[in-house]
Amino acid sequence: MKKKIYIAGAGGMLGQAFYRIFKDDYEIRCTDKDVNENWLSFLDFRDFQNYKKDVEAFKPDYLFHLGAYTDLEFCELNADDTYLTNTTSVENAVFIANKLNIPLLYISTAGIFDGKKDFYDDWDEPNPLGHYARSKYMGERFVRENAKRFIICRAGWMMGGGPDKDKKFINKIIKQLNSGKRDLYIVNDKDGTPTYTVDFAKNVKLLVEKEYWGLYNMVCGGETSRMGVALELIKVLGLENQVRCHEVTSSYFENTYFAPRPPSERLVNKKLELRNLNIMQDWRIALREYINDYYADFLTTEVQLPVKEEIIIS
Q1: 139-181: pLDDT as tens digits
Q2: Helix spans in 64-196 (H)
Q3: Which of 40, 106, 135, 310 is geometrically suited to a Cys-Cys bond with 86, CB 3.0 to 4.6 A?
């Protein structure tokens, strides 16, 4: 019989990838307060009693707690809702997993560091800036200090989900290009490591099956910056001769993106490497796969954004 996984907060870009990677080998129940797929059922994991009741009824072998508010500006303006969603709901998950004596998966973030170092490995001490980072770090700490068995995976700059679910950097640029813009203003003072959701889900699956519990950095290979990602995306789209990227500092967007962000969110997958379990691809390869898998139909139907045939990779 297939083992069972309850995936809470599965309505976003990461949940879509987990559904794709786990659905064939496991019996899964996916829930979210935003039911935007036919494989989703309604559950608000902030409601402890209903969360507990629904998980217990499914009798899973694993509990994956994925959902969180990730819009930093929203989190700064809605602190109580942020901690309720990103922190106390994680405590709910820990209580439930411990009662059922099953492992818990929690997703943390590179954003919990202050950016004073160029790179952070699995053992560096976080120092969160802002309500988003603090709420996620407090969730991480509660899992580390209280869960019986757990996997915590720290992700970097997420890319995944395609046009409908990607609310991050890649889709924001594509939307600008699709609207006809050919001059982009990209910050030159933010470094990080992209994380392709599909590769992330595959690496989590490997850890679960090997039963290597613990805390892991889990990002794509290679170091880059916001500017580096933008230039590579333009290259992938075949628009090098049409689009100009202008370097600006973060202060250029200070009215729109006012939440504190660390200058460096670069992670190193040191523990995965030491255990010989690092299957995360280089971010450039992952970016091409992402565009090919999720945007090919979207891009070819938009007259503003032609796609070169040679970017389609097998």
Answers
A1: 999 999 999 999 999 999 999 999 889 889 999 999 888 888 8
A2: 72-77, 79-83, 89-100, 130-146, 169-178
A3: 135
Q: Quick check: is 55 in a domain?
A: yes
199 phi and psi angles, rounded to 5 deg: -60, -40
51 assigned to some structural domain: yes
- Any idea what the CATH number is for the domain that residue 117 is in? 3.40.50.720
> What is the structure's pLDDT at 304?
54
Domain count, the chain: 1
Q: What is the pLDDT of residue 238?
A: 87
Residue 304's SS3 state is: coil
Burial of 110 (0-12, 13-18, 19+ CB in 10 A): buried
72 part of a folded domain: yes
Q: Is the dihedral of CA 10, 12, 14, 17 positive or negative?
A: positive
pTM exceeds 0.90 for this model: yes
**Closest Cα partner for 152 from 194, 192, 207, 101?**
207
Q: What is the pLDDT of residue 305?
A: 52
In the numeric block, the tokens 């989900």 are attached to 161
Give every CB contact of residue 43 below 8 A, 6+ residues apart in sequence.
8, 31, 32, 33, 50, 51, 54
Residues of the chain with pLDDT under 50: 303, 306-314
Q: Which domain holds residue 72?
A: 4-167+194-217
Q: Which residues contact 46 (CB under 8 A, 6 or more apart)?
A: 84, 85, 88, 89, 92
Cα–Cα distances in Å, from 78 out to 16, 249, 253? 26, 26, 20
Dump pLDDT digits (tens) for 171-194.
999 988 888 889 999 998 999 999
Any domain includes 122: yes
The 3-state DSSP class for residue 210 equals helix
Chain length of the chain = 314
